[in-house]
Design a protein that fits this description.
4 helices; structural molecule activity; 5-stranded antiparallel β-sheet; Butyryl-CoA Dehydrogenase, subunit A, domain 3; 5 strands; alpha+beta
């Protein structure tokens, strides 16, 4: 029962991480304007995401524009788009695989095959966490490098946006949930690998021999 509960907990964490990745992918706040030096008082804030850029005026009005050309995008934007879309699809596959092999479902007869399917689902969640970590760290490295680069004008300096933090939180949930699913499934398989067999005590018959029906 404890193993099944932990497995459900891992599946829930994986689903939350998957939703978080989708949310981070759609948000335009991967990079935001940095208010430094002469940029302390500005009339607008610039948001840059994977799919669009937005300009937020001081009056509260916001205008967004989708990137015109895909091939003209910077390498980090192209990689970020590809990897987050792949993670979104893999997360759906991991959800279906884990549900099919979970202890709380009867899609497959209990046994080694069921445990292996659950381990595969947990491994896919872990893979999703590793893949989505690549564009997040790539963007963070670029933002930090440009921020401390004296050759970059202050008006072009950016800071890490909320989407990066949401993506890192989603990555932690995916990795932790996937590891939890794999560990619970492996422990369950170890417990059921060596079943205990009991045999009745052998009693001698009247002629001093053991009765054959007492053997198991």
């Amino acid at each position: 029962m404890t193993s099944a509960a932990l497995e459900i907990l891992g599946l829930g964490l994986g689903i939350l991480g998957w939703v978080g990745v989708i949310l981070a992918c759609g948000l335009p706040m991967w990079q935001v304007s940095a208010f430094i030096d002469v940029n302390i008082v500005v009339a607008q804030t610039i948001w840059e995401g994977l799919w669009m850029t937005c300009v937020v005026q001081s009056t509260g009005q916001m205008q967004c524009k989708v990137y015109d050309s895909i091939l003209a995008l910077r390498p980090e934007l192209q990689a970020g788009r590809a990897l987050t879309v792949i993670v979104g699809l893999l997360g759906l596959v991991a959800l279906m695989v884990t549900v099919v092999g979970a202890q709380c479902t009867n899609c497959i007869r209990p046994g080694k095959m069921k445990s292996r399917i659950v381990v595969a689902g947990g491994a896919i969640y872990i893979l999703c966490g590793v893949l989505v970590l690549v564009p997040l760290c790539w963007f963070a490295n670029i933002v930090i490098s440009d921020f401390y680069d004296p050759t970059v004008p202050p008006s072009q300096k950016r800071e890490m946006g909320a989407a990066l933090y949401i993506g890192w939180a989603a990555t932690a949930l995916l990795l932790f949930g996937g590891c939890l699913i794999c560990c619970c499934s492996c422990s369950q398989r170890d417990e059921t690998s060596f079943p205990v067999k009991y045999s009745a005590p052998r009693r001698p018959t009247s002629n001093g021999e053991y009765d054959k029906k007492n053997y198991v």
